[in-house]
Every structure is written in structure tokens, then in C-alpha cells.
Amino acid sequence: MPDTLIVPSIGSGLAVPGRRPVAVSIAGASKSFKLPHNRASTLKERVLQPRSAHTFEWLHAVNNVSVDVEQGEFFGIVGRNGSGKSTLLKCLAGIYRLDAGTITLRGSLSPFIELGVGFNMEMTARDNVIINAIMLGLSRREAIARFDQIIDFAELHDFLDLKLKNYSSGMLVRLAFSVSIQVNADVLLIDEVLAVGDANFQQKCFDELERLKRQGRTVLFVTHDMGSVERFCNRAMLMSHGNVVEIGDPATIARHYYKLNFATSTAGDDASADAVAISTLESDATIVSVWFEDGDGVRVEQQEHGRTGCIAMEVEFNATVEDPIFTATLRNGADTTVFSASSQPDNLETGKFRTGDRPIVRLRYDNWLAAGRYVVDATIARRGTGANILDYRRDATSVVVHGARPTAGVVDLPSTFEIAPR
Amino acid sequence: MSTELAVTDSPANDRALVETAAIVAPSAFGGDLRRLWSLTFTLATTEFRLRYLGSVLGYVWSLLRPLLFFGVIYVVYTKIFKVSSGLHYGVYLLSNIILWTFFLEATGASIQCLVAREGLLRKVRFPRLAIPLSVCLTSAFTLVMNLVVVIIFAFANGVDPRWTWLELPVIVALWGLLAFGVGMILSVMFVRMRDVQPIWDVFSQILFYGSPLIYTLSRYPQHLQKYVLINPVAALAAQMAHAFVDPRYPSVGAAMGGEIRVLVPLAVIAVVVGFGLWLFIRRAPLIAENL
């Protein structure tokens, strides 16, 4: 579509693997924040407590991070809250100043890390598009010239003169994303944005990013959503407490991210989280991937109400495990668990698995769910007592259920009204 | 900061010509003055439109406040105390109040401008100077409209246009420069120290009543006048009175006893702006993390 996005002469040389130049080079990047114990923010406090202002501790938000991202790569940065991933992104964007280390960049860099910054809810979409585009680095003339393209991509022609405060969050994201891809940058930085919006638009966003990638643009992407990391990233980096835990292929990183999360939630003690996480990185079984299918065994992202649905997971065993317990849980948009099924209550003999076995486990169900988006959590546990969990993946992937009748309930059970006159 | 793409037609060239650049922290100017200007202008016009959005009388309100203040002072001075100087005192008073209102509004809005735009500062790399600059520009839009009212008022009071009216844009620009200089200092200091707000409230009151704005320079003893005019606010008001209101008001040069001495209040403005710029440039890279 937009001729404005064309990047000059990406030759066939780019297609040769291993020959791609480095787009972003981070070497020994460190960033610490001073956390005063009692920050004096008024003159009186400073005068009355001259000493207290001097006690503080250092928060090492980013600690000696080094990584090279190749041109055209879609690079994911994942980690729990407070792991330093957003701080790293801000250093990359040139919003924070590094304490040590260097970041070198080839080409131009998008100056923003979040979509929709500077959106003003009191103004119309028309005004906001222009203002936002200018803030993101376009000139006024460019912003006006690209206005139609932006609106075309967002598919919001009918809502141009609506104030943004009347927009839904999904519409806001559409508008924001559409503006941001008009910014001519070789390296794009994106912080947690594509989690909102409906499934179709999300796909459209990723298609667009995919297209930019083919043009030789590089995308650095910070997220909690392992589904999108696995679907779209070429490589990913796992961070914890400001340190790089691992850099590798998205599936492995996603798995280790869940382990890290799970280890912390059971270990409780935050300080030992890293130790626990790393010690449990290799386990007897891992959930390789989770997806949805329809009744015919076709992979889907949407399921129709009233039909047979299926959650499938591929598991890899690294040791001999007998009769493991598989569990899948569906949560709706309000984070309410609406469906949870486990092979345990049935006392199912799931079989004996050996190292290297990669079975696919399918859970079929009649889909009576209300319309909406559902995320799935998958667990594999050793038979027996206690929380002997081998692998756990929260938010593994999601599905959109459609075709249900409008309802305020969490399910739309097959039902009919019967009215008997007295 | 960022570098441009090297455009080439050769398909074999896989952008080896693209320069590499190191990422540095955001700066006051951002190395691109056009972006600084377009951003400043956008922020200023947006703010200006938002201010008058949703109020029926819109702009009228921003004129009504200084007009009301003018009315009170005018009645008190000419009808109750009867201390009017006679030289188009109404025009003198109104022009001073309108310019002072601009100065007060611009500096007052500058104090919190960085803190208020935290979201922008933490999420986008852009020339930091755009924020205090846009605040002054927004106030300047109102000032320009108010000055039209002042000029109409001057005509209505029988003030004849003279060639010295051409000094008006220079005087207004100097007010703007002074407000910008003070605004930069206040905005950057407020990030770390919140009592900047009350301190400036008190200080600006002293400045207002200490400068010959609602009274004329002639209220001061002759030998003190040249010292009073070191204060740039006093000097700008005095020159405005001479050039715009009535030539019988002494010019700054005349009141200070020598045209060359005009440079003294100008130097004060230069020092304020220079110090403001120096402080702002020094702190700009760290504004985002100190918010």
C-alpha cells in the first residue's frame, strides 16, 4: 500500500542468511536509578532533614546487557514486570541516558515506544492523527499528505469527527498503530501494544509489521504475550532483574519465561527467583506449543459457538514419565476461569512417555462459551500428590468465539423458552 | 541522533551506505531545529484550542479577567484616590496589565509544564525545549489578540498612531523572551523542587507591585528612577509608555540618563535567558527519569 513506506533498494543480498548487517548493537548497557529512602521534594524537607536526603539505594534496572539485532529481525524482549525490559527500550529510544555501555544503530530510529502518546481525548480523531503524526516525527506537510492512508488502514472513516473519549480502546489502538507505521524509521520500538484490539486487527498489525520486516526494517518488541512472541519474533531475549537470562529462539524463550513466572509464584521469595528459575529450566517435560482447532482438526484462531472445539498442545518429554496429568483452563476477558479440564479426575491412564516423545494432547469440548476472547493456560504435572508440575504455560494462546447469542453470562448454553398458559 | 537513509538506486547495494550512529540521551534542541519548531507549534496550537474548547464565550474569558482587573485599578486610582497622571492613564494601565498578564500566565504555566507532560517525556524522544517554548507560544497567541483590543482602546482614547509604534513588536518580543527565560528556569527547577510554585507566586507579586505598572515611573524620586529601570519589567513598561501611549513619558534612555544605559535592562534579560538555556540544556537529558 503506502508508497511512502518504500525503503530504497533492499537488494537480494538481504535474503542470504547470516549476511545481514547488524541494525542495533547493544554493548554492556547499564542503567541504574537512585532510589532515595525519603526523597526531599520541598525546601522545608531539605532544610529540616539534611541527612535523610543522602540515604538511598541503587536500583540496577538494566545490568550489562549486550546483544546484536540484525537488520530485518523481529526481536522480542520478554520478562516479568520490573525485569528492566522497558527501561532498556527507553535507553534504546534515547529517552533515558545510559550509565555505561553503548548502543549503536544503523539507520533511523522511531522516536517513540508506545502507541497513541499525546492523544488528546477531548479532540476529534481527525485532529489527533495530525498532532500525533507530528509528535512522532513527521512534518506537518507529511502528516497531512498521509492522512488518508492512515484512516484507510485504521478503517475508521465513519468516526473521523468523533472525539477520542468516545472511542473504544480497540479503535484507539487501531488509530494509534496506523499513525505509527507511517513514521519512516528503519528500527521500530514497540512496548506492549498489540495486546488490545480485536483479533482481526491484531493480525493486520502483525501482517503490516511482517511487511515492514521484509523491507528490511527491524522491530524490537517488548511484551508479556508469549503467543505473539512465538508467532512473530525471529529471536527473543529473556530478562530478569535487569540481567539477560537467555537469548534464543522464541519457543524456548517463551517456555523459560513461563518457568520463570511459575517458579516465582511457588517459591514466593523474590530474591531466590532467578536461582529457582534457572535450576528448573530443564525439566522432564515441556509444553512446546498450544493452539486451537475446530472439530475437523484444522488449526483456528476463531471458533464457532455450538460446534465442537479443541485445545491442542504439543508436549516434549526429556525423561520417562508415566501417566502425566494434562490440564487446560480457559479464561475470559474479565479474567474469570470459565472452563477447566484435567485428565486427573477421570483417573485417565495417559500412557508412558520416554525421552524424545512429542505427543499431541487434544481436549475436545462442545463449545457453549459466550462470544468473546478466551486465553488458555496449559499445565502438565506428574502423577501423584503435591504440586509436582512439570511445565506450566499461562496465556499460551487465545481464541475468539463467535456466533453466540448476546448474553450477559459467561456461557450461552443451548436453551429454549417454554411458556405454558395457566 | 538519528541518521538519514542513504538513497541509492543500485539493487546490489544492501544499504551498506547507511550510517551508524550512537544513541544518546534526549537533548534540549534535539539537533533538528525544524522538528523543534513544528513540535512547538503543534503543542501550542493544540493547547490553545483545548483552552477555549467547550466554553461558550471562549476567548472572551481570557480577555475579561485582565479587563476586570483594569477596571478595578482604574476606578480606584482615578475616582477614589484621584492620583491619575493625566497622560492617557487608561491606555497606560491597560497595556501594562495586558502585557503583565501574558508574562504571568506564561511563567505560571511553565512551572508545571514538564511535570504535566510526563507521559510524553517518558515515551517519546523529542527536543525537550519544545515544551516550555510551546507554553510561551500559547500565551503569546492570547497576547496578540488582546493587543488588538489595547490598540482599539488607544484609538478610542484619542492616542494618535506614531512612528514609534513600530517599537511595539520589539517590546512585545522582549517580554516574550523574558517570560521564556524565566519559564525555562522554573520548569526545570520544579521537577526537583516543588516549592518553586509558591516561591514564584510571592516573587511575581513583588515584581508586579514593585515595578511601575499600575503607577507611573514618575512616582519614584528622580534619582532612583535609573535604578528602578534596571528591572527589565519596569524598563519594558516605561518604553511602552513612551513609544506607544504618550511621548511625554520619558523613554528608558532618557530616564536612565543616557541611551547607552538601555543596554543594562537588556543585559538582565540576556542573562535570564542565557541562564535558563544553560540550566535547561544541562538538565534536559535527565528530565524523563527525574519526573
Give structural notes.
The complex is a heterodimer of chains A (422) and B (291). Chain A is an alpha+beta fold and 422 residues long. Helix content of chain A is 24%, strand content 33%. Chain A has a five-stranded mixed sheet, sandwiched between helices. Chain A has a five-stranded mixed sheet with strand order 11-19-18-14-15, covered by helices on one side. Chain A has a four-stranded antiparallel sheet with strand order 10-9-12-17. Chain A is globular. The N and C termini of chain A lie far apart (65 Å). Chain B is 67% helix and 1% strand. Chain B has helices at residues 33-52, 59-80, 89-116, 118-123, 130-156, 168-192, 196-210, 222-228, 232-245, 252-256, 263-283, 287-290; one strand at 20-22. The longest helix of chain B is centred in the middle third of the chain and has 28 residues, at 89-116. The relative contact order of chain B is 0.14. The chains are: A alpha+beta (422), B mainly alpha (291). At the A-B interface, helix 1, helix 2, strand 4 and helix 3 of A face strand 1, helix 1 and helix 4 of B. Strand 4 of chain A pairs antiparallel with strand 1 (20-22) of chain B, so a sheet runs across the interface.
Strand segment count of chain A: 19
What integer value in Å does the Rg of chain B equal? 22 Å
How much helicity do the residues of chain B have?
55-70%
Strand content of chain A: 25-35%
Please state the CA-atom Rg of chain A, rounded to the nearest Å: 25 Å
What structural class results from the helix and strand content of chain B?
mainly alpha
Mean pLDDT, all residues of chain A: 78
Please identify the structural class of chain A as seen in this structure: alpha+beta
SSE sequence of chain A, one letter per element: EHEEHEHHHHEHEHEEHHEEEEEEEEEEE
What best-fitting shape of chain B do the alpha-carbon axes yield? Answer: globular
* Nearest-integer average pLDDT of chain B: 86
| Main interface: chain pair and counts | A-B, 54 and 50 residues
Largest sheet of chain A: 5 strands, mixed
Helix content of chain A: 10-25%
**CATH class descriptor of the domain at 283-402 in chain A:** Mainly Beta
Residue windows where pLDDT falls under 50 for at least 5 positions of chain A:
1-17, 265-282
State the CATH superfamily name of the domain at 283-402 in chain A. Answer: abc- transporter (atp binding component) like domain
Flag low-confidence runs of chain B.
1-18
